[in-house]
Amino acid sequence: MDTPPSAEAITRASKSNFALAFIALPPERRRDLTTFYAFCRVVDDIADEPGRSTEEKASLLAAWKRAVCEAFAGEPPLAPQIRELIGRYRLNPQWLLELIQGCEMDLVPARYETFEDLRLYCYRVASVVGLVSIEIFGYQNEATQHYAVELGQALQLTNILRDVGKDLANDGRVYLPLADLARFGIDPSDLATRKGGPRFGELMAFEARRAEGLYQSAIAQLPPEDRRSMRPAEIMRCIYHRILQKMSRDRFQVFEKQYRLGKFEKLAIASRVLLLGR
Q1: Cα–Cα separations (whole angstroms), residue 137 to 44, 86, 148, 161
Q2: Is residue 93 part of a domain?
Q3: 155, CA 20 to 30 Å: which among 60, 121, 254, 269?
Q4: pLDDT, greater one: 24 or 78
Q5: What is the pLDDT of residue 69?
Q6: How far is residue 260 CA from its own chain's centroid?
Q7: Total-model pTM
């Protein structure tokens, strides 16, 4: 029987921007964040795996929900480490269950009527990641939880804007709120055929302004006493904010391009945050 990949191997294989934030942490917290990130990657990959049926995905996610709360024979390989994290940091298990519920929301083609509907999804798949992460980072002021929630919303909305084409190719997912599409005279079928013209650019600019507001809200809610401990989160904020700005300057050519930052650009951002705090 093949040995399951370690948390470190899962994190390395992801090549995620999130992993870059680990450099701001001391070794023990870096190890624990790696374990948590691997959990996030595993449950997200279950929902996105093209070779599995919806029923199989639902069963695997249900097993993870049980494993968060109790040990059992045949549980997912990473489950004991996750329960250790819950105990070590006194994490609210509901956060991890909410994250899994967010992945369950992806088991059927995504459609969200309003931005408020989308906010629930963003909360589950991104804000709760922030809430768990700041417990591992360590913080003093409870207001930092509001920072984590708003930043999670901003990061996820940026992801949604960047991945419009990619999501359409994955079971026809459309995360942009249907009410916003209607406001700009765009039908979801227009996205599938890459139509929309200037109206699509206007829609994306509208959503980008919304994301910008979430970034600014997060910054405003970060207490001064926690700015140092939140440097990993601030690295993430600066990277994804730069991606948002890059898309905006390029008029959102998301069907033609995959927007990302180069390795050296990301390292420059991380260095600036570590040295200057911004």
Answers
A1: 22, 14, 12, 28
A2: yes
A3: 60
A4: 78
A5: 94
A6: 15
A7: 0.94
For 145, the 3-state DSSP assignment is helix
CATH number at residue 57: 1.10.600.10
Which of 81-85, 110-114, 170-174 is least confident? 170-174
- Which tokens belong to 61? 């996610």
- Judge whether 79 lies within some domain: yes
| Residues 161 and 254: beta-carbon distance below 8 Å | yes
Q: How far apart are CA 54 and CA 59, in angstroms?
A: 9
Residue 204 dihedral angles phi and psi, to the nearest 5°: -65, -35
Placement of tokens 């309003």 in the chain: 114
pLDDT bracket for residue 5 (50, 70, 90): confident
Per the listing, tokens 């049926």 go with 53
Taking the C-alpha atoms of residue 235 and residue 200, their distance in angstroms, rounded to an integer, is 30
105: its two tokens: 């929301």
Taking a C-beta distance cutoff of 8 angstroms, is the pair 173, 167 a contact? yes
Q: Cα separations (Å) of 32 from 21, 26, 136, 217?
A: 13, 10, 7, 28
Is residue 7, in this structure, part of any structural domain at all?
Answer: no
Closest CA to 267 of 17, 40, 15: 17
Domain span at residue 229 reads 16-276
Q: Residue 143 gets which letter from DSSP?
A: T
Phi, psi of 170 (to 5 degrees): -105, 85
CA gap 60, 76 in Å, rounded: 9
Q: Report the Cα–Cα distance between both ends of the chain, in Å, rounded.
A: 47
Q: Is 6 a domain residue? A: no
